[in-house]
Amino acid sequence: MSALKYWTNRPRGDSRTEKFAPKIWHRLAACSLAALTVCAAVSSLGEPTAARDKARSRAERALREGEFETAEKLFREILSRDGANIDARLGLSYTLLKQRNIRDAYDHAARVLSVEPLSARAHSLLGSALLAGGDFRLSVEEFRTALTLRENDALAIAGLAMIDFYEGRVSSSLSGLRRAVLLDSQEPDFIFNLAQAAARTERYKEAADAYERFLNIAPRTDADRRDRIRGLIDFLRYLGHQTALYVVGGQNRTVVPFELPDNRPIIQVRLNGQKEPFRFVLDTGSGISVISDATADRLSMKPVARGGLARAVGGGGKFEIVYGFLDSFEIGDVKISNVPVYLRKFFGTENPVDGYIGLAVINKFLTTVDYGLKSFELIREKGRDTDSVVVDPNVLEFPMRITSSGFLSSEVTLDGISRPLNFIVDTGASISVLSASLLKTENFSTVARTGRMRVFGAAGVADDVETLLLPRLTVGPSERAAVRAVVLDLEPLNETTGFIQNGIIGGNFLRHYRVTFDFVRGVVQLAPEHPVKVDKEEPPVRPSGAAIS
Questions:
Q1: I need a labelling partner for 363 at 20 to 30 A (CA). Which of 39, 68, 157, 451 fits?
Q2: pTM score, two decimals?
Q3: Cα–chain-centroid distance for residue 55?
Q4: Which residues contact 202 (CB under 8 A, 6 or more apart)?
Q5: Distances (CA, A) of 133 to 35, 105, 224
Q6: Which residues, in sequence order, are CB contacts of 478 under 8 Å at separation 6+?
Q7: How big is the chain by its Cα radius of gyration, in Å?
Q8: DSSP state string for 494-536
Q9: Rounded to whole angstroms, how far apart are CA atoms 407 and 486?
Q10: CB under 8 Å to 13, separation ≥6 — which residues?
């Protein structure tokens, strides 16, 4: 059930509500009466009320106008004079969250709760920081606590709606975000997230209208982002005039072989009815499919919209966003009509490909990639009875999420790190990846360095990239020892994922399994395979063939 739907529709006196409530009062009991008394005393010795309110108003205005550094400075100045000013500390927490300074945003919200545990705003900010950091379980607890204290807390409602969004309950997410926007129509983030949910449910006009509204009220401080959104609006308007997208035809099931030259499945497809096949990488690291400029020229395909620069891995870190549209996309005996795509230049001449198959093409199928047999299977999901699914006990199963930017993500654990991490599950990556920021914040001193490699990314080529040998990588119930990974700056991707991705599970991990993506049930299944023969060892690394952000 939707996290938000349960909370808003829960019966008063529901046993689950009663079971949950003591956690709130436990926090109350843990709060020191002495601390409350001291804080009240300090507050009374602060500056006059009028001056304090004026200073906070200036900080809040800077926050609304997108001058986050100024807002942060002003809130900190207030707190330097009056450390017990709860409103200023909450404002600072929200400002830091806007700047994606998640740890400090969390700390300031937690400090408020240490003296005012009944602050719904503090609980919703804590939940937002936890969610941005990728801790779904604890974020749900904080959002629900906030709603216990204040039923119409827009930030908590929006937070639970985004959890629904990431976990595939998109209709519930859309309802929750509409409610959040109704409660706080001037919060740009709520409107932006509503646009994303509308687009994912193929309500393209609503999505375009929401993005337009976002541009009207959002601060004008990020010109690149605004250019990207204008291009996206044009694309959504174009899609809104199409009869339907991703229309499935042909047979209900197909099985095709694939090549595996560098741990990436390369499949032959047919485009726009042409007889000549094209070579496409299956890429679960991309939401929308991508075709090369050269392939677009061969198809005489013209851009239908463009706008702004995307940030991605490799080269200069940016490339122009250009949208195209395919009439048909055929894989074996299956045909998908009306397929939106990105058009861009591809880098690297070894094992050249014509494009990448994104999640949107395959998410209406039960999709299996058998690395041992080198076969790719699609089974139409329509009419499949998921309630009667029986999972083979030899199959390892774990939940998956979809990020705001359309990447498939799952929780993993690494030796030496107790908290769960979020990694993109990327069949289009030849090798696994560890984020540079995680390397800085956690202790990897005992992890072996294994040299340097060249990396091909969506934005170009990066040379002399450090590689590590991870002692153990665990995904759900599956674990592998001695997994090689390159260290890359994933900040360009994390700007748009919605919750932090700490790395990428690449082909050097996935190739040991038969991998099934069950989009209806929201799970990935791994069935161990016999050793897989890869056509060429130590290929030039492609950490994400179609990473768009």
A1: 157
A2: 0.85
A3: 36
A4: 245
A5: 29, 11, 24
A6: 396, 398, 513, 526
A7: 24
A8: HHHHSS---EEE-HHHHTTEEEEEETTTTEEEEEE-SPPPPSS
A9: 19
A10: none
* Tokens 């609980």 belong to residue: 123
Whole-angstrom distance, CA of residue 249 vs CA of residue 466: 45
Q: Which amino acid belongs to residue 458?
A: A
Q: Which of 141, 113, 109 is nearest to 28 (CA)?
A: 113
CA dihedral angle for residue 74, residue 75, residue 76, residue 77, rounded to 10 degrees: 50
Compute the half-sphere exposure of residue 320: CA atoms within 13 Å on the CB side of its CA. 12
**Quick one: which of 399, 369, 433, 477 has its CA closest to 168?**
399
Cα–Cα distance for residue pair 184/154, rounded to 1 Å: 7
For 211, phi then psi, to 5°, come to -65, -40
Query: Which three-class secondary structure state does DSSP give residue 410?
Result: strand
Counts of helices then strands in the chain (DSSP H, E): 19, 22
Structure tokens at 186: 């001037």
Distance CA 390, CA 388 (A): 6
DSSP string, 414-478: ETT--S-EEEEE-TT-SSEEEEHHHHHHS--TTSEEEEEEEEEETTEEEEEEEEEEEEEEEETTE
Burial (CB count within 10 angstroms: exposed 0-12, middle 13-18, buried 19+), residue 473: buried
Q: Cα–Cα distances in Å, from 117 out to 33, 90, 123, 391? A: 12, 13, 8, 44
Q: Choose among 398, 400, 407, 362: nearest CA to 380.
A: 362
- Per-residue buried b or exposed e for 126-155, using 16+ beta carbons within 10 Å of the residue's own CB: bbbbbbbbbbbeebbbbbbbbbbbeeebbb
Each residue's pLDDT expressed in tens, for the chain with a length of 549 residues: 565 554 444 443 443 333 333 343 344 334 333 333 334 444 444 456 677 778 889 999 999 988 999 999 999 999 999 999 999 999 999 999 999 999 999 999 999 999 999 999 999 999 999 999 999 999 999 999 999 999 999 999 999 999 999 999 999 999 999 999 999 999 999 999 999 999 999 999 999 999 999 999 998 877 888 999 999 999 999 999 988 899 999 999 999 999 999 999 999 999 999 999 999 999 998 899 999 999 999 999 999 998 877 766 655 567 788 999 999 999 999 999 999 999 998 876 677 899 999 999 999 999 999 999 999 999 998 756 666 666 777 788 999 999 999 999 999 999 888 888 999 999 999 999 999 999 998 988 888 888 888 777 665 677 788 899 999 999 988 889 999 999 999 988 898 999 999 999 999 999 999 999 999 999 999 998 755 455 554 444 554 444 433
- Give the SS3 label for residue 158: helix
d(CA 453, CA 343): 27
